[in-house]
Amino acid sequence: MGADFSITSAAKEPMSMDMYLAVNEKPDPGTAAMMITAKNQIKASNARIKLTEEQIKTEKKALASVESAQKGSNMSDISNVGSYGQIASGRAINSAADGASELAIGKKMEAQERGLNQGAENIAETKDLLNISDGAMQSITDNLQRIRELSLKAANGLTGDEEKASIQSEISGLMENIEQVARDTQYNEKNLLDGSYATLEVAENPDGRGMSIQLENATLEALGINGYDVTGDFDITKIDNALEKISSDRSNIGSQTNALEYAYRSNLNTAENVLASRSRLEDLDIEKAVTDQKKNEVITDYQTLLLKRKEEEDSMVTKLFQ
């Protein structure tokens, strides 16, 4: 049986071993040795308890560090996914998550740019239309010039009735040519010179606004020479007036074509600058993005290595106290 170290004083209060040893300066050697051994065991137990408490605190800190590193790793993974998507597309803004305001601004600029380009295309088509009209009017001018020459010949006193009839036959053919050109000149199934359309609206701006193009009427009736006949009394000034009208119409076509050319260049220039501005907003600096991506990967790998080392050290410390 072990010794009972519950020591009671005269007042019946328990005494510690130190107090007992102080009162009994020369206790029994066996008892003293056992008391010293018990005291050392208690100290060792208290030390182990203290170390255990410190280890628990350390492990709590390590756990918090692990959780923080894991959260940082998760955020880094999410960032990496976005970075890879941006590098693959070559665009810094692929979705609202990359920048809501930038995305909204970029879409507005894209709409403006595409509107300007479509306006430029509309202008180019209208220029083609006017060029067709001008070419047709050149044909009408050639016919009128020939009619005037024949009229002068018929007006000559040396020209007999049979010759005038022959001249009129040629003039009638030329007038039929003029009427046919005026009736059949078309663009996209639209008649251009028969008076079917007085004006044509050109949507040259992104909002659909633009200039109005005047279309001419070059029929015989509009020229004032319908029924022109040199076999009887005739007035050659009618042909002169017709030529003057065609010249005026062609001049108008030329001025409208020039105006369209200016608008066309303006649209292309504006669209180019809008595109450049949108590019600065949305496009990705590939070189910088790849460099940043590699840097983030190195940091993530380093954090993972530190985390692994910490877990190994914590595992070794835990085994020492098992």
Describe, in short, the structure shown.
With 322 residues, this protein is mainly alpha-helical. The protein is built from seven helices and six strands. Helices cover 72% and strands 4% of the residues.
Q: Globular, elongated, flat, extended or rod-shaped: what is the shape?
A: rod-shaped
Estimated helix fraction: over 70%
Strand adjacency order, main sheet: 1-2
Runs with pLDDT <50, length 5+?
Answer: 1-12, 73-81
Given the helix and strand composition, which structural class is it?
Answer: mainly alpha
* Strand percentage: under 5%
The tally of beta strands, per DSSP, is 6
Rounded Rg: 52 Å
Order of helices and strands: EEHHHHEEEEHHH
Count of helix runs: 7
Distance between the termini: 30 Å
Oligomer: single chain
Average pLDDT, all residues: 77
- Describe the biggest sheet? 2 strands, antiparallel
Can you characterise this structure?
The longest helix has 61 residues, at 29-89. This protein has helices spanning 17-23, 29-89, 100-155, 161-184, 220-223, 237-282, 286-320, and strands at 7-8, 14-15, 186-187, 190-191, 199-201, 212-214. Strand 1 (7-8) and strand 2 form a beta hairpin. It is mainly alpha-helical and 322 residues long. The chain is rod-shaped, with a radius of gyration of 52 Å. The strands form 3 sheets. The protein has a two-stranded antiparallel ribbon with strand order 1-2. It has a two-stranded antiparallel ribbon with strand order 3-4. Strands 5-6 form a two-stranded antiparallel sheet. Mean pLDDT is 77; it is low at 1-12 and 73-81. It has 7 helices and 6 strands.
